[in-house]
Every structure is written in C-alpha cells, then in structure tokens.
C-alpha cells in the first residue's frame, strides 16, 4: 500500500524491495547493464544537467519533483499505483473474482509475452531519438525530449521489475534481451515494426510522440484492466507519465502548424519554403506515414489470441469499467474492417475476436481530436487548408489491407500506380532532405528555430526563457 518512493535505496521504489533481498540483488545486478545501455544507446548530446521531473509519489497530487539533474544520475525506479485490497477482476471468465497478486500458471506464457512486448517498445524509442538533441529547436524542446527519454527508461524498469519479480529465470533472461535488441538493427531488431523506423528530425519526433506514443496509451490502458494486479498497477502509473509524451507531440505539431500558418498569412502564399518553414502538404505527408504505421501496431482486425487474453482476464478493453455490456462478450458480435471483393468494407464477427478493431477505433477517435485541434489553428488564421487522417486502408502492412495499396481517400491502386503516386502521399527523399535542412540547433536561452512557434507556457510554471538545459 506504500505510495511514496524510497530514495534511500540504490533502486528507488515503492514496492518494499528491501524485503526481498534475492529480487533486490537480481535487479541491482541488472542496473549496471541498463546504465551501460543508456550510455551507449541513449541521448548523444553532452549535458551538465536538465530540468527534469522525477516521480516521488504515486498519489494524484504532488507526485513529481522538478529540478536540474545530471542525466546519468536520474533516479530511475520502480513505482506501482496504490493497491486496492478489494479489487475484483472486471471482465472475462474470472469476472468478479479477486485480482491476482501472483501469476496463474496457465497464463504465465501469455502474460510474460505481453510484458516483454510492452517492455521492448520503451528502450526502442530512446534509441530512435538518441541523436535529436543535436538539432533541438530550443532549450524548452530539448528538455522535453530528455524528459520523454528518461521516462521511457523508467517504463523499461517497470516491465523489468515484473519480469524479475514474477517470472523467475525466464523473466531474468527476457530482461537481459530487452537491452540486447536495438532499434533498426539488422541482426537483433526491436519486436514491433514502428520501433525500427528512423526518427531523424523533430517533425518526425512530434508525429511519433503524438501517434505512436498514443498507441502506447491504449495498449497500457488495456493492460491496466488486467486481472494480474501488479501489471495493472504498473500500467496505471505509467499512464500518468505517458500523458506528457503525448502533450509533447500534440503541442509540437500545434506550434509547427501555427508557424506555417503565420508565414502563409504574412506572405500570402502556400509556399513557405522560402521562409524556412514546413509546408502544410509536407506536414500532411508526415502525418500520413506516422498514423498508418501506428495503426499497424494494433495488429490484425481479428485475433483469437486477443480473444483468449480477454476471456482469461489478462488484457481488457479500453475503459472496461464504463462499458455497458456483460464484460464477457461470449454471445456478442462486432463489425470489423475488411477487404471484400476488392473493396474496403466491414464484416460481422464474434465480438471477442474483434477486440483489436475495437481498440483501434478508440485510438482513431482520439487521433481525430488532435487533427481537429490543428485545423482550428488554420481556421483561426483564416486559411482554407485542412489536415486530415488518411483512410484506414492507406499504407497498411498488417491486417486486412496489408496486401493492397490505397490512396489517403481510400481509392484502391495497382502496384504500378502506387509506385508512381506514393510521393504525393508519403514523405519523399526531397521532403525529408528539406525538413532535415531546417534542423539547425538553437541552444541559446529564449531563442527558437524559425520553423516552429514558441510554446504558450513553459514547464512547471517556468517561462519559455528559462535555462531548462545546461549543456556540457
């Protein structure tokens, strides 16, 4: 039931790690490997210290401390949300039974795999973003990048703790492998495709933190419902930190769109390249790519594995407690996206096997909120252009639409036509080269790059001009 983190320990935690010396020693032996990984695969820009928040409590108020911290000395730790001793399983065949404090033998392999996949995404994004500090558009943005990085590192710790504490030797071996796989590696890549893509510029970074971290929000939300209580409590706390990552993406794209719109208005032109900004059609292409790649992270439209996870109680639905059904779904049906006779349409399946589609649709609705927000910026600038989410069949490599090519409007194309036109929909080498050409570092206090607007407010009540990062 402890909420405050114990910072007297080598590994800060609120799980009374000192009471299990064997587990404590195992994690302390993993810690140097983590720090070695951070030194070799983490941020490359040398810093003295960074204005970071550090978790100190898992309660709703006052849960984080802000201060300048040397990155390597950041106190990564293990924090689970408060335990509800009366918590009951909310769905599946065990609905109404007490939540599990230990892993049931029959679900051991499935739970371990879910934890490993989630754990693998956390260090992957740090690896993808490791060189971005060298081209940060402001110290404010540099600080936000590093905050995302250290929290992804802490989320890795969260999954490693569960592997060590509940899965014995297999768990310890999997924890080691989480540091041996690397994003984009030909020999040992990360498990999920989106986490092997490059993040070479800040437009990509903001799109990643908006779209791909938002996938993380929904995956964590389903695991928060888990009957395995330590996993549920871990994910509940991770979601508290994950919200900042999505804030970085949302407001980053806000500020790019705002700057582009400002220059379009001032110069009465759509072509803002001459003014060192990012054109709206380029922003749309990056949006198309990151959104479609993130849709693939939800898997196929139908899945017997996910049906089994739900029935077993190990992975629920988004906002399970607010659903108005029997939370078992054994007699329910659901419409999923499908390709039938060469047309993108829907087909009816058993609700249990359509849970991936259910989650993806929750995600799509959430993504649309961001697009609406960016379009309000264009509307307020009296511009007619609008950004939009592409069709669900666009640029897909997983699921029903993996074998076809479609435009952002959903028009099906031949392979030859796709090759001819794909540069209209996705970033071309010319687009990428131009965006990268803008990525000149602005590391002076109170200054910002010309392609992005400053934020409306700073961090934790500090002004934009605050010295968020002291460079080495």
UniProtKB/TrEMBL annotation:
Enzyme Commission designation: 1.14.13.208
Annotated keywords: Oxidoreductase
The keyword Oxidoreductase is assigned to this record: yes
MF-aspect GO terms: oxidoreductase activity
Coiled coil: none
Domain of life: Bacteria
Signal peptide residues on this chain, from the entry's feature table: none
Enzyme class per UniProt: oxidoreductase
SUPFAM superfamilies on file: Ferritin-like
Keyword Glycoprotein: no
InterPro entries: Aromatic_CoA_ox/epox (IPR052703), Benzoyl_CoA_Oase_BoxB (IPR017635), Ferritin-like_SF (IPR009078), RNR-like (IPR012348)
Name recorded for this polypeptide: Benzoyl-CoA 2,3-epoxidase subunit BoxB
Organism this protein belongs to: Catenulispora pinistramenti
Chain's gene name: boxB
């Amino acid at each position: 039931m402890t909420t405050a983190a114990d910072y007297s320990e080598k590994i800060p935690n609120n799980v009374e790690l000192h009471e299990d010396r064997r587990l404590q020693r195992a994690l302390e032996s993993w810690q140097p490997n983590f720090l070695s990984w951070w030194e070799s695969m983490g941020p490359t820009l040398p810093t003295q210290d960074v204005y970071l928040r550090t978790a100190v409590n898992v309660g709703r108020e006052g849960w984080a401390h802000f201060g300048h911290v040397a990155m390597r000395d950041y106190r990564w730790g293990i924090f689970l949300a408060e335990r509800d001793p009366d918590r009951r399983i909310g769905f599946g065949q065990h609905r109404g039974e007490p939540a599990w404090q230990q892993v049931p033998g029959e679900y051991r392999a499935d739970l371990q795999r879910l934890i490993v996949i989630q754990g693998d995404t956390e260090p992957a994004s740090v690896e993808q973003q490791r060189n971005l500090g060298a081209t940060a558009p402001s110290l404010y943005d540099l600080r936000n990048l590093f905050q995302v990085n250290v929290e992804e590192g802490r989320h890795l710790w969260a999954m490693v703790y569960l592997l060590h504490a509940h899965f014995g030797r297999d768990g310890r071996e999997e924890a080691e492998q989480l540091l041996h796989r690397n994003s984009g590696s030909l020999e040992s890549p990360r498990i999920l495709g989106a986490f092997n893509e490059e993040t070479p510029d800040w437009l990509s970074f903001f799109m990643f933190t908006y779209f791909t971290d938002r996938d993380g929000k929904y995956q964590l939300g389903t695991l928060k419902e888990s009957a395995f209580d330590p996993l549920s409590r871990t994910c509940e706390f991770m979601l508290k930190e994950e919200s900042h990552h999505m804030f970085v993406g949302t407001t980053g794209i806000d500020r790019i769109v705002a700057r582009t719109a400002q220059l379009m208005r001032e110069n009465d032109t759509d072509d803002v390249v001459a003014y060192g900004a990012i054109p709206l059609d380029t922003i749309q292409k990056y949006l198309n790519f990151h959104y479609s790649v993130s849709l693939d992270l939800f898997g196929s439209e139908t899945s017997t594995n996910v049906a089994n996870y739900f029935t077993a109680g190990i992975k629920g639905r988004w906002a399970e407690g607010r659903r108005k059904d029997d939370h078992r779904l054994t007699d329910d049906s659901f419409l999923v996206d499908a390709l039938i006779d060469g047309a993108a349409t829907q087909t009816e399946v058993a609700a249990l096997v359509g849970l991936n589609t259910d989650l993806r649709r929750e995600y799509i609705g959430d993504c649309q909120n961001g697009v609406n927000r960016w379009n309000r910026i264009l509307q307020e600038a009296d511009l007619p252009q609008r950004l939009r989410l592409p069709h669900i069949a666009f640029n897909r490599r997983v699921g029903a639409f993996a074998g076809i090519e479609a435009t952002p409007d959903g028009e099906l194309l031949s392979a030859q036509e796709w090759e001819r036109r794909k540069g209209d929909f996705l970033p071309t080498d010319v687009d990428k080269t131009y965006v990268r050409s803008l990525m000149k570092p602005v590391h002076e206090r109170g200054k910002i790059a010309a392609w992005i607007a400053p934020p409306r407010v700073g961090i934790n009540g500090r002004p934009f001009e605050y010295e968020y990062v002291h460079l080495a």
